[in-house]
Amino acid sequence: MHKKIMGLFIPFISILIISFNHSNVISAELGLPSTIEIKNRPPDYTNWSGAEKKVWDAISSGKPAIFDKPYLVMNIERQKAQSLRSAFLSKILCDEKICKLIPHNGVQIECAIVNGELDLRNAGLNHMIRFESCIFRKNIQMGGVVTPHGISLKKSSVEGDLFLTDAEIGGSLNLDGGTFCALNARNLKVDGTLSMQRANFRCRSELTLDIISDRYPSIDLLGASIGGQLNMEGAWFMEEVRMPGIQVNGQMSSENAKFDDGLFMPGSIVDRRLCLKNIRGAKKIFMQGVQVKNRVDLDEAKITGVLDMQGMDISNRLFMDDLTVSGDLLLKNSKIDNCLSMKRADIAGQSDFQGLNVKGDVIMQKGRFNSVNLTTGQIEGLLNLSTSGFSGKVVAYGLYVKNTLQIEDATFSDILHMQRSKVAGLVDLRRSEFRNKVSFKGAEVDGDFYLDDAKFNEELDMLGVRINGNAIINQGEFKKGILLQLGRITSVDYKGANMSRMDLKGTYVDTIIARVKNSRELPQKMELRGFTYDIFLGEYTGQEEKKEEFFQNWLRRIEAFAPQPYEQCAKALREAGSPEKANAVLYAAKERAREEAWVSNKKRWLGLSILKVTIGYGLGVRYFLALLWIAVFVLIGTLVSYKSSAKEVLETKGYTRWSHYFFYSLDMLLPLIKLRDQTEKIELPDRPRRYFYFHKLAGWLLLSFVLAGLAGITQM
User: Fold this and answer.
1) Which residue has the higher pLDDT, 414 or 207?
2) Residue 293 — very low, low, confident or very high, per pLDDT cuts 50/70/90?
3) Cα–Cα–Cα angle for 334, 340, 342, nearest 5°?
4) Which of 637, 604, 622, 611 is nearest to 704 (CA)?
5) What is the percent of the chain where pLDDT is above 90?
6) Looking at the predicted structure, is the pLDDT value of residue 624 above 80?
7) CA distances to 308, 320, 623 from 267, in Å
8) Burial of 294 by CB count in 10 Å (0-12 exposed, 13-18 middle, 19+ buried)?
């Protein structure tokens, strides 16, 4: 009998054991204790699906509701076992009575599948919300949500849009690793951190091919306010990211992020660092008027379009090392309170830095640039363009550089325009190559100006330049010369160059020093009219040419002869205690004038030739040529008076010796001076008399030449 009774109960007991074990397995999956009885069940509990009941049992017990990862669940039945209705979630999150049953640690659901649009608009959420690694089949509507806690959608996939317009989140908003169509969060307020690390924001068209609509942005954060950090590191945005007027009280970082379209954040404020390091693919980045109260990092960023940073206000450094921009880089009227670094940058479009104000250095070394506009820029440190290449125009009209302008080993394929710029330090163009025109017209440099080994294919225009240091030219190449008219330079140190022409018309230099190996290292042609200086030191350092002929060779290169350059050189040499060199220079001037006169004015050529052969232009020891001519004429007159018919007449007057005839000839030659009163009263025969007429005329001419030389008339 007992055996029959036990046989009837054994199947029933087995069913109870299996059910009990199955309940324990589910409870273990959801992190629940192994018990059948669950307290705090709301009235709607009986209407919920099994998955929803299990979620509520976990949440009400203060445990996370965790399902298998959705991508591991291929069985449809198992997917249903972890699928939740959006209405269920709205109920437990918004119903006041149900919310009171939720423990203080809030709602945490992992790996669930949510069907339908989750509508939490304008809800007041009193608990921390965590939907992590979940799948949302449609939109999440959280516009106007107010919560003192945080919200997490970490690693979740939202196949629709996430709406957070006008939401107020007292904690942080975590979207790390998630996948979204778009985030619409205009006027969002987050007191903590907004994090989107490694999140993907896909194009709407990828998921809703049947909908033809206007273009949507990946993110719209217009007017949003973030109390902590805005973290977008490693994220991927397939459409525009719009953040105009956003306020970030902490750091904003998009390091390693990918922007398939653009980033728009004009008028935004970032209280700490703005990091866009190594961002990729952006067609355009607009940051006009952005205020950053710390540094900005764009190192290694790759922008496929325009980078617009006009009017930015950066309180610290701006790093753009290894930056690549396929379009324009615009920094017009921006303000940087520290340095700007663009080492190894590659800018394919125009770099517009007009009106840029930088309190520190601007470093653009080893970069590749197209055209650069630095007009009216203000740089309180140095400007370093060394070892960079510029394929377009570089315009820096009115640029101010408080320290050094360093352009060593650079290459300029188009014009370099530095008109009316001011450099408070030195300018260094050593070893750079300029393939087009270079202009420093009206520029002012307080330090030295180095042109060593520089190469200029076109004319170097330095009209009206002011250099308060040394202008140093050493072995450069100036194919079309230097225009240095109307300038003022403290000193010029010329050490030789391959120079076609140097124009120093109207320029003043305190000291000019020229030391070259030979005359081939001097400028081939020069314009020196009006060029003045106080000291001129010049010499040959080689052995090929005579050192004393340096100044004559220097001046011989004057294109159109004018006496002033020679006179200026002679004046400087005489004041330096070298009268012989000064006279040699003036003599060279007369020789050059005589050569010019042979072509243009034969009468002047004749006059100069007479001055040359008679008194050596009245310069130095060449005056003694007049004595030689006097001796010649006296000797000729002696021979004429002694050998001709004049001898008979003179013997009757007591001239019997050679000395008598000599003094007679001398007395006839010297005007204004009479050795014997009767000399001119002696009547000579016709032929000797005619000669002595010429003899007396030669004396008057020699006297006039000597007096003119003494009076300086021959130097005019």
Assistant:
1) 414
2) very high
3) 115
4) 611
5) 62
6) no
7) 12, 21, 84
8) middle
400 has a pLDDT exceeding 80 = yes
Q: What is the mean pLDDT of residues 10-26?
A: 43
Q: Which of 319, 313, 314, 286 is nearest to 300 (CA)?
A: 319
With beta carbons less than 8 A apart as the criterion, state whether 340 and 318 touch.
yes
Q: Give per-residue pLDDT as tens, 341-357.
A: 999 999 999 999 999 99
The pLDDT of residue 19 is 43
Q: Residue 481 in 3-state DSSP?
A: coil
Residues 6+ apart with CB under 8 A from 465: 440, 441, 442, 443, 444, 445, 484, 487, 488, 489
Lowest average pLDDT, out of 67-76, 186-195, 467-476, goes to: 67-76
Q: How far apart are CA 704 and CA 6, in angstroms?
A: 164
Long-range contacts of 141-144 (CB under 8 A, 24+ apart): 141/117, 142/118, 142/167, 143/167, 143/184
H or E segment at 594? helix 579-600
Closest C-alpha among 434, 474, 422 to residue 458? 434
Residue-wise pLDDT for 307-337, tens only, equals: 999 999 999 999 999 999 999 999 999 999 9
Phi (first) and psi of residue 597, to 5 degrees: -70, -30
**What token pair was written down for 286?**
């607009």
User: What mean pLDDT value characterizes the chain?
Assistant: 86
CB 219 within 8 A of CB 256: no
CA-closest candidate to residue 365, choices 346, 392, 338: 346
As a whole number of angstroms, the distance between CA 401 and CA 70 comes to 62
Range with the poorest average pLDDT among 382-396, 407-421, 511-525, 690-704: 690-704
The angle formed by the CA atoms of residues 418, 421 and 423, to the nearest 5 degrees, is 115
Contact present, 425 and 379 (Cβ < 8 Å): no
* The two three-digit tokens of residue 17, written as one number: 């054991």
**Residues 375, 355 contacting (CB under 8 angstroms):** yes
Distance CA 569, CA 509 (A): 12
Q: What share of the chain is helix, strand, coil (3-state, %, to 5)?
A: 30, 25, 45
* Closest listed residue to residue 714, CA positions, set 617, 597, 605: 617
Using alpha carbons only, what angle is made at residue 185 by residues 180 and 188, rounded to the nearest 5 degrees?
Answer: 135
Residue 173 host element (H or E): strand 173-174
17 by Cβ neighbours in 10 Å (0-12 / 13-18 / 19+) ranks as exposed
Q: What are phi and psi of 659, to 5 degrees?
A: -65, -35
Q: Which residue has the tokens 């950090």?
A: 229
DSSP string for residues in 9-75: HHHHHHHHHHHHHHHHHHHHHTT--S-S------GGGGGS-HHHHHHHHHHHTT--EE---GGG---
Nearest to 538 by CA among 563, 572, 505: 572
Q: Is the pTM of this model over 0.85?
A: no
